[in-house]
Amino acid sequence: MKTRLVEGVEVRRGSGNVFADLGVASADKLKIKTGLVIEIRKAMRARNLTQQEAARLMGITQPKVSDMMRGDFSNLSERKLMDCLTRLGYDIEIKVRPAKAEIGHLMLAAA
Length: 111
What we know:
With 111 residues, this protein is mainly alpha-helical. The chain has a domain at 26-87: Orthogonal Bundle (434 Repressor (Amino-terminal Domain)). It has helices at residues 18-21, 27-46, 51-58, 62-69, 78-87, and strands spanning 3-6, 9-12. Strands 1-2 form a two-stranded antiparallel sheet. A hairpin with a 2-residue loop joins strand 1 and strand 2 (9-12). Helix 2 packs parallel to helix 5 (78-87) and helix 3 (51-58) packs across helix 4. The protein is globular, with a radius of gyration of 17 Å. It starts with a strand and ends in a 24-residue tail after the last helix. The mean pLDDT is 87.
């Protein structure tokens, strides 16, 4: 990866996945889950929902919503997070296509 110096600090362009850049295991999975949680937070804010109201709509407990809002969503699968979004009025579309590179990647695109 190409590096350059900016004001005496070595700077490297990221890959687009901060988790992979930091060497985190399951980086693609974590990036997807993080993107889903960000959209859940946006939906809750847009609808002015309390954690209790959001929990009821999403079909999970308020403590799980609280954990999610604090960045701990390890106890929720990608599928459950997608279910939460659909219950908050989001459509989710999954596209599968041949990769341009030898190895493909996961990507979350939010509108």
